[in-house]
Amino acid sequence: MNKILIGIQIIVSSLLVVLVLLQQRGSALGSAFGFEGSFYGKMRGLERKIFLSTVILGCLFIILSLLNLFLPYY
Questions:
Q1: pTM value?
Q2: For the chain, which has fewer Cβ within 10 Å, the N-terminal or C-terminal residue?
Q3: Is 29 within a domain?
């Protein structure tokens, strides 16, 4: 059971990394710290789907981590 949860967690974490890298906010490192180009418009279409998928996978990753922590090892 624990090996299955670890396998699912690896898959979810890999997808989470890909989705985070697909998100585009700003064009330089300075925009990550709130400097130039801090304009955020409304998300539409594919950008919104990527964002919602990232949030869902992040929550799923946390749930899987807690399950791996509290379930006994067999």
A1: 0.73
A2: C
A3: no
